[in-house]
């Protein structure tokens, strides 16, 4: 195992400048976008749906990130030591990305059930069930965020900076269960939903146009999800591998990569505006897709049944 010195663990000042260049526009756009979206979903929409519940929770998660970003910039620029304020901000910050990923996963599952199994959806789906699931996830993530520093908090010197090469196995747990498993679920559900919509026999031009819009929305959401989060979690996986191998010569490069990809991941609070826009349209236009799905299922079941013989009198 190599010996790590201060020279190969200290981040260059250009990284702090890069973060400022990214985070200032993120704050400038994210605060008004999320405020406007919160007003629309809480006050303007009339009907409570599962998607509306998920979107409001996603806005709360984005709000946590926007609150923590100024502290993140200050703490990393001036090497703030780990104290109670640091731990509090780290807990607030660390709930954003996992919660955003889990909510997007729930939205994908909800759409999959609604379109693939429309007859069972009435039993499996409801706004109250969606709110209960989100509440459970918030409690679980908050507890996990509070307990994590007790196992690994004594190894680092500065806030938001992992300088040691001591492997953090809770990080590996977060990478696998917090991203790669949800990623597989989101890809599967999105592909199945798009495939199901393409197979529909839309008889009217309106239904055909509606399905094309839905396919476009689901495709954009999937691309944003992959582009936004994949680089960050891949570099975290590389960081874990470097820590396990004790490769100190690679530590600085991997740390720089993690910080750059974290900037990309944190832009999700602005990119989620696309999800808010599409979700607002979905709640107004696309509920009619579900009766289409139900009719398709019913028609298929009726066609598969043998015709009954007519009794002549």
Describe the overall structure.
The chain has helices at residues 13-44, 50-77, 84-94, 96-116, 118-124, 127-152, 169-198, 205-245, 251-266, 268-285, 289-304. It is an all-alpha fold and 313 residues long. The chain has a single domain (9-284), classed as Rhodopsin 7-helix transmembrane proteins (Rhopdopsin 7-helix transmembrane proteins). It is elongated.
Provide a quick synopsis of the model.
With 313 residues, this protein is an all-alpha fold.
Question: Secondary-structure blueprint of this entry?
Answer:
Elements: H1 13-44, H2 50-77, H3 84-94, H4 96-116, H5 118-124, H6 127-152, H7 169-198, H8 205-245, H9 251-266, H10 268-285, H11 289-304
| Shape by Cα distribution | elongated
Find the structural class using helix and strand composition. mainly alpha
Round the mean pLDDT to the nearest integer and report it. 80
Strand content: under 5%
Number of strands: 0
- The SSE string, one letter per element, is HHHHHHHHHHH
Q: Distance between termini? A: 94 Å
Output the keywords.
disordered C terminus; 313 residues; elongated; Rhopdopsin 7-helix transmembrane proteins; mainly alpha; single chain
């Amino acid at each position: 195992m190599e010996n790590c010195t201060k020279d190969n663990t200290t981040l260059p000042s250009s990284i702090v400048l890069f973060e400022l260049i990214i985070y200032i526009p993120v704050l400038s756009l994210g605060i008004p976008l999320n405020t406007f979206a919160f007003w629309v979903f809480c006050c303007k929409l009339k009907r409570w749906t599962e998607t509306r519940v998920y979107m409001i929770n996603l806005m709360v998660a984005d709000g946590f990130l926007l609150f923590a970003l100024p502290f993140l910039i200050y703490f990393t620029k001036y090497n703030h030591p780990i104290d109670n304020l640091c731990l509090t901000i780290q807990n607030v910050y660390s709930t954003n990305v996992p919660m955003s990923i889990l909510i997007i996963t729930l939205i994908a599952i909800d759409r999959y059930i609604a379109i693939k199994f429309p007859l069972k959806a009435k039993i499996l789906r409801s706004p109250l069930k969606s709110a209960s699931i989100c509440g459970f996830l918030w409690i679980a993530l908050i507890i996990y965020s509070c307990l994590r520093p007790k196992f690994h908090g004594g190894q680092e010197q500065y806030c938001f900076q992992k300088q040691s090469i001591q492997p953090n196995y809770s990080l590996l747990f977060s990478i696998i269960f917090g991203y790669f498993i949800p990623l597989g679920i989101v890809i599967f559900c999105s592909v199945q939903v798009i495939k199901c919509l393409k197979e529909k026999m839309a008889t009217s031009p309106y239904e055909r146009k509606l399905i094309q819009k839905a396919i476009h929305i689901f495709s954009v959401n999937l691309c944003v999800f992959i582009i936004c989060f994949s680089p960050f979690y891949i570099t975290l996986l590389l960081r874990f591998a470097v820590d396990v191998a004790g490769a100190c010569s690679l530590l600085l490069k991997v740390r720089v990569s993690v910080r750059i990809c974290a900037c990309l991941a944190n832009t999700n609070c602005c990119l989620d505006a696309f999800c808010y826009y599409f979700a607002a349209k979905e709640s107004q236009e696309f509920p009619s897709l579900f009766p289409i799905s139900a009719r398709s299922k019913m028609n298929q079941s009726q066609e598969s049944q043998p015709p009954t013989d007519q009794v002549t009198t």
